[in-house]
Amino acid sequence: MRCSWAENGKQNMIDFHDHEWGKPQHDEQRLFEILSLMTFQAGLQWQLILDRRSVLKQVFNDFDIPSVAAMTEREVEKMIQVERMIANRRKIRAVIQNAQTLNRLHKKKILLEQILWSLTSNQVIDHRWQCAEQIPSQSALSVQFARQLKYYGFTFVGPKNVYAYLETIGVINDHLIGCEWR
């Protein structure tokens, strides 16, 4: 049995649930990729983001942080024209701004991975929910982390988006208790 939200999706949703969602992540580029996907997900269905993930990876150079941080307004306009691209200039600019913020942090020897995992003393928060209705859309931790990210200069990082991010990268384990991928 899987978590119910993955059961009704396409194969890429099932694969995402089984192989990515809730798996503790420490790779900086991967953490940036997921943060960027969450930026695009705001107001949209996650299935759409997974369907367009390859396009997003292509236009953002596989989410290479320095490369994305150096992107210009001209490149933003080119991205808008790419077939199947989610053509939202605010979200595209947010990803670029977040890469620039990460670059500044990296120059100070601060990693996103360190910020994230220090919130929980490097421990996964395992909620052990029985049913999907128990899972909140945000928590005190996601509110705290959203504030911290905004302080550093990140954008599109509200508490609900951040909660989904923390679930995805495995800081929070919200796989249902009966899910065999816990």
DSSP helix fraction: 55-70%
**What overall geometry do the principal axes of the alpha carbons give?**
globular
Radius of gyration: 16 Å
- What is the CATH class designation? Mainly Alpha
Distance between the first and last residues' Cα? 10 Å
* CATH structural architecture: Orthogonal Bundle
Largest sheet: 2 strands, parallel
Helical run tally: 10
Strand content: under 5%
Q: Can you count the beta strands?
A: 2
What attributes does this structure have?
Endonuclease III, domain 1, 182 residues, mainly alpha, two-stranded parallel ribbon, globular, single chain, 10 helices
Explain what this protein looks like in three dimensions:
The chain is built from ten helices and two strands. The mean pLDDT is 95. The chain has a two-stranded parallel ribbon. It has 182 residues and is an all-alpha fold. It has one domain (4-173): Hypothetical protein, domain 2 (Endonuclease III, domain 1), CATH 1.10.340.30. 57% of the residues lie in helices and 2% in strands. The chain starts with a helix and ends in a 9-residue tail after the last strand. This is DNA-3-methyladenine glycosylase 1. It comes from Ligilactobacillus araffinosus DSM 20653. InterPro entries: Adenine_glyco (IPR005019), DNA-3mA_glycosylase (IPR052891), DNA_glycosylase (IPR011257). Keywords: Metal-binding, Zinc.
Strand and helix layout:
Layout (H helix, E strand, L loop, with lengths): L3 H4 L3 H9 L8 H14 L4 H14 L5 H5 L3 H9 L7 H19 L4 H7 L6 E2 L13 H13 L6 H10 L3 E2 L9
Parallel strand pairs: 1-2
GO biological process, one term: base-excision repair
GO molecular function: DNA-3-methyladenine glycosylase activity; metal ion binding
Pfam families: Adenine_glyco
